[in-house]
User: Fold this.
Amino acid sequence: MNSLKEEADKIYDELKKLSAEYNFDLAKAVIIGYSNGANIAAYLMLNYELGVKGAMLMHSAYRSETIGKGMMFDTEVLLTAGAQDTTATAGESYTLKKMLENKGANVSVKLTDGGHEISPMELMEGHVWYMPIKKSIRDEDKLL
Assistant:
């Protein structure tokens, strides 16, 4: 857990620095993570006020009970899991779903028949999930 917090602190600071340096809006960003990357992304979302538009977290085995106070309204999250995954179980995805929903995120879970690997079906699910988010970002940009 200490390592997870340390890495999340570094990534959070770097994201803030880079968003200012390159003038990109984190409110239009979508985080994508697989396995440990998904765990770190989940920790960031649950404990820092990133304000990202969404996240696709594949095969997360998020086990931390640490949760910050901020909310994530208008944040879309897709969790993917393999029914035969013994490293990051489908049950852990549903536990994470509840944690994210309790903070206001709109979360869906997609299960595949696979194990702890990224399947073509997951990538297709991610594409389908992302399309309305992309449209929403474009529509927001048109209003500005």
Q: What stands out?
A: The CA atoms of residues 77 and 96 lie 11 Å apart.
